[in-house]
């Protein structure tokens, strides 16, 4: 399996975040990727992981998902923030543009002239997305890792002379950070700045392919849902803990709208969900929803914060359970792109990601 990885993704390293009222060390740390990379390197003789550097495909694929003003904000936020004397540790919102502010729509039209402090509250919806000096470089690289992996998968399928029922289909892993599934087209949230999975999906849809996004991160992928809520392609499916972050989304009643109605499937689960229960739900959704959709590609929002001891997520999934999840994903029998999302238990993050990929490949 090819693993796309770049050390530039390690540069984004905010010092802290505020979670449940506590100021804590930033959990979405570079160590996460370093540990996963080391573990896969150690496994490489066993499972044939091949490490590939991404290429640079510019802003165009990113702008197919994100608004131009939002991208300009991410590129310039830190410099503007420091220029007016704010904390050099990074940009964090001081006030949010809440829906109940009656003048909210007119404020949006003044974005070019408002203070860098106000902009932080305009383009961010929580306190987990501190923009430090190197954030944009890593955010951009994270997207390039996913774009490169997507194009590689597309190339393998195009060059393959075999028919659609070839078994097994290849899988590729985009080992990237910051993650993406909480970001929508003009809002960062939940450690996410650019929606990597959405960018990949747009590339594949642009080639007239049908895509299923299976989001197995512990948290609901509210950004991905939001971006594709009105579309029948992709089919978006999320298994997530509830009630939990992002708190306001992820209900079963959110099914998509217009042409997209029926193509957004949320499966909220309790924190007590163990390996057997999770696998049962996953297998059901594979047979009932994923296979009948008849997609050309599968994109997995791969979070391992479903692990039983994860500090901010956590069903009761064990390391062995991740291997079974990988086997289930393999049974979908589609060309598959795994895109790294969450997972914060550093002692096991390498093993758990590795086990999903081993389950998929063996
Ligand atoms: Zn998560």
Keywords:
362 residues; alpha/beta; Arginase, Chain A; globular; binds zinc ion
Quick overview of this protein structure:
The protein is α/β, with parallel strands linked by helices and 362 residues long. It has a single domain, classed as Arginase, Chain A (3-Layer(aba) Sandwich).
Q: How would you describe this structure to a colleague?
A:
The protein is of the alpha/beta class and 362 residues long. It has helices at 30-47, 60-63, 68-83, 104-108, 116-122, 135-159, 196-205, 222-227, 275-293, 319-331, 349-361; strands at residues 2-5, 16-19, 22-25, 50-52, 171-175, 211-215, 235-241, 264-269, 297-302, 336-340. The chain has 11 helices and 10 strands. Strands 4-1-5-10-9-6-7-8 form an 8-stranded parallel β-sheet, with helices on both faces. It has a two-stranded antiparallel ribbon with strand order 2-3. A hairpin with a 2-residue loop joins strand 2 (16-19) and strand 3. The protein starts with a strand and ends with a helix. The model has no long low-confidence stretch (mean pLDDT 95). Bound molecules: zinc ion (ZN). Zinc ion (ZN) is lined by residues 217-219, 303, 305, 313, 341-342. GO terms for molecular function: histone deacetylase activity; hydrolase activity; metal ion binding. Keywords: Hydrolase, Metal-binding, Zinc.
């Amino acid at each position: 399996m090819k693993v796309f990885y770049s050390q530039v993704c390690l540069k984004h390293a905010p010092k802290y975040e505020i979670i449940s009222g506590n100021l804590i060390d930033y959990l979405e740390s570079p160590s996460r990727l370093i540990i996963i990379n080391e573990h896969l390197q150690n496994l490489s003789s066993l499972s044939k992981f091949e490490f590939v550097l991404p290429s640079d495909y510019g802003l165009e694929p990113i702008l197919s998902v994100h608004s131009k003003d939002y991208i300009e904000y991410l590129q310039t936020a830190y410099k503007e923030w420091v220029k007016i004397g704010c904390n050099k540790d990074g940009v964090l919102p001081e006030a949010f543009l809440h829906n109940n502010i009656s003048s909210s729509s007119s404020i949006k039209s003044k974005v070019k002239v408002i203070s860098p402090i106000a902009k932080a509250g305009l383009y961010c919806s929580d306190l987990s997305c501190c923009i430090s000096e190197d954030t944009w470089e890593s955010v951009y690289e994270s997207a390039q890792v996913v774009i490169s992996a997507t194009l590689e998968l597309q190339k393998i399928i195009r060059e393959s002379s075999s028919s659609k029922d070839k078994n097994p289909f290849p899988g590729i892993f985009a080992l990237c950070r910051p993650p993406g599934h909480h970001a929508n087209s003009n809002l960062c949230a939940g450690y996410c700045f650019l929606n990597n999975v959405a960018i990949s999906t747009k590339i594949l849809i642009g080639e007239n392919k049908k895509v299923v996004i299976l989001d197995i991160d512990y948290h609901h992928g509210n950004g991905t849902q939001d971006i594709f809520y009105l579309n029948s392609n992709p089919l978006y499916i999320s298994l997530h803990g509830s009630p939990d972050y992002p708190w306001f989304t992820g209900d079963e009643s959110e099914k998509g709208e217009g042409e997209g109605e029926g193509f957004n499937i949320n499966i909220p689960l309790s924190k007590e969900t163990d390996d057997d229960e999770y696998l049962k739900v996953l297998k059901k959704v594979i047979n009932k929803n994923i296979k009948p959709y008849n997609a050309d590609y599968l994109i997995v929002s791969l979070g391992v914060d479903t692990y039983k001891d994860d500090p901010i997520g956590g069903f009761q999934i064990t390391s062995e359970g991740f291997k079974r999840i990988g086997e289930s994903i393999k049974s979908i029998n589609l060309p598959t792109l795994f895109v790294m999302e969450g997972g914060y238990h550093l002692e096991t993050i390498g093993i758990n990601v590795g086990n999903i990929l081993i389950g998929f490949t063996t």
